[in-house]
Amino acid sequence: MSTFDRLPWRRMILVGLSVAITVFVIWGSWKTLDAKAYSGAAWREFVILGLAQGAILALIALGYTLVYGILRMINFAHGEVFMAGAFGSYFFADAYAKTGFLDRHPIPALFILFLTAIITSVGVAVLLERIAYRPLRNSPRLVPLITAIGASLFLQNTARGFFGTQTRGYTKPQVLSGDWTIFGIEIARIQVIVFVVSVVAMIVLQLFVSRTKTGKSMRAVAEDQEQQQTAGERRLNDRERRQQQRDDVEGPPRDAEEGREHPSRPGHEPGRQVRPPVFLNSTQW
To answer: 230 falls in which pLDDT band (50, 70, 90)?
Structure first.
């Protein structure tokens, strides 16, 4: 193989594209600033709005990466799952706004709205995984990809049929109306809340993935799915073996001594001999 064939062409292309995009963004920004098409206040609004909207998109992107990292599947219906939660809580928000409950008791109302959106999104995601994705777990990667596109179109058209194509907006409670002055800059309260909640959610997700047992298991599966599946099967077999040895040491249950098999301990036979326990360590899995 020649030196020309050993060159890292893929990395070189990615680096070249990154440099070209960066140069283009800097050049476009400089030309826009030089033209003075927008005032300083307008640019400040752009930055604040970009941070608020970008925080929401970052949360959605984290969901994408978690699904792809564990299942190795691009879930095209991920955005529709968020859409279902938004529609689910919208009707509660609209009803609370019409009755005045949203302004009289904003904290309980917002808590109910958040809880409704979470439950709706989780329910749609679980049904989607059980019906569309789980039967295709061991299929070629192209099959779940096409299924995800179909699921996305199905959820989109279902929402269009139920709720129509018009744009809907949440009624803003009085407690979130107005601006806050932060470092001499007036920022809408709703944008501050969105940014703070998004950052807190990212921190909680980071702690969950890095500190909890479930999060560490998710990271292990993302690193090597086949190895972790094999390790899980070994642990399950070892647990069943130790349970069998424990039953042997304790002897057959009273029902088995009377000639009947115990419903909670199948496999016990009358007169079964008891063997001494065998202790296994982690190196004997």
So the answer is: low
Using alpha carbons only, give the angle 235, 239, 240 rounded to the nearest 5 degrees: 120
Average pLDDT over residues 96-124: 91
Rounded CA-CA distance 75/155 in Å is: 13
Is the pLDDT at 53 greater than 80? The verdict is yes
- Whether residue 254 is contained in a domain is answered as no
Average the pLDDT over 130-148 and give the result.
85
Q: Is the dihedral of CA 213, 214, 219, 224 positive or negative?
A: positive
Supply the pLDDT for residue 251.
59
Calpha distance 281→285 (Å, rounded): 7
The pLDDT tens digits for 26-47 are 998 888 877 777 777 788 888 8
105 occurs within a structural domain: yes
Domain extent, residue 156, equals: 73-177
DSSP 226-280: HHHHHHHHHHHHHHHHHHHHHHHHH---HHHHTT---TTSTT--TTPPPPPP---
For the chain, report the end-to-end CA distance as a whole number of angstroms. 43
For the chain, the domain total comes to 1
How far is it, in rounded angstroms, from Cα 32 to Cα 130? 49
Residue 192 domain flag:
no
